[in-house]
Amino acid sequence: MGGFDFEWKGKIYSIMTEGGHPCPTDEEEARALAEWRLSEEGIEWFGPVPTDWSKEHYLDDRYPWHRSKLHRIDVDDPDADKEPYINWFDYVECEYGCGKHFYITRGTHTCSYCNGPCCKECAKVKLTKCSTEGCDEWNCKGRGVVAPPSVNGNWGHYQPCNGGNKQKCHNCNRECAHCGESGSDKKMSRCSKCKFSFYCNRDCQKGDYKHHKRNVCMAVEKHQELQKGRFFTRRLNMYE
User: Which end of the chain is more exposed for a tag (fewer CB within 10 A), N or C?
Assistant: First the structure.
């Protein structure tokens, strides 16, 4: 943690920083910082005003690898001596073919069944939109998710995601995980741990508890752990 002070329109602001990134605490500080950032003093302090990267883009487009410098550079300031600060948590790897890391936005495409992230380019051929009018959810065409544990406890197996075989997303195509009754037109409860399985009543949820805990909840939890492990491993590999 660090910080800096600047004066703007007769008022002095104290901004905290984390990893070199300013962290304003309220809208007034954020607005003043944005305006000051465009001034000569702000440009002298932070360098050239960067391009607006708020829309989805690939990490390699903004921070390409420089072979002679042996580190990534910021295309908005390619002559900088130091390696740019990259907030890796703003990027996720596309799991549908290209394998590129892309910037996460509110419009990021993810399968409603297996929750796999997909960039816009791959989404054109790898995902289908929910057929329900007004729904913005997506279904993938068989990327694959972590399968339930085998007898020997091996978690390395994968099974195809069935989202591509359904016209509606997981939320619109609600089916009781125990009795199979469709509940798209009525209120259903959802498992509070995995957020995946629906039940038409409490009796069905109790009846499916043992099977659900071992084959769904544990699989989802393990899948999330594996995803975190892959994220940090790939993050380190980018510097090799």
Answer: C
**116 in Cβ contact with 96 (< 8 Å):** yes
More confidently predicted of 196 and 105: 105
* DSSP per-residue letters across 163-222: GGG-SS-TTTS-BBTTT--B-TTS--EE-TTTS--EESSHHHHHHTHHHHIIIIIHHHHH
Q: Which two tokens mark 83?
A: 């390696």
152 Cα distance to chain centroid: 32
Express each pLDDT in 193-213 by its tens digit.
766 777 888 888 888 877 777
Residues with Cβ within 8 Å of 211's Cβ and at least 6 positions away in sequence, in order, are none
Cβ burial of 83 (10 Å; 0-12, 13-18, 19+) is middle
State pTM to two decimals: 0.56
Alpha carbons 179 and 50: distance in angstroms, whole number: 55
Please give the Cα distance from 166 to 174 (Å, whole number).
11
Q: Which residues pair with 117 in a beta bridge?
A: 110
Is 145 within 8 Å of 161 (Cβ atoms)? Answer: yes
Calculate ∠ Cα 196-202-205, nearest 5°. Answer: 45
Length of the chain: 240
Tokens of 128: 């289908």
CB 61 within 8 A of CB 52: no
The pLDDT tens digits of the residues spanning 140-181 come to 876 544 344 433 344 444 455 655 566 777 777 777 877 777
57 in Cβ contact with 103 (< 8 Å): yes
| Distance of alpha carbon 149 from alpha carbon 219, whole angstroms | 7
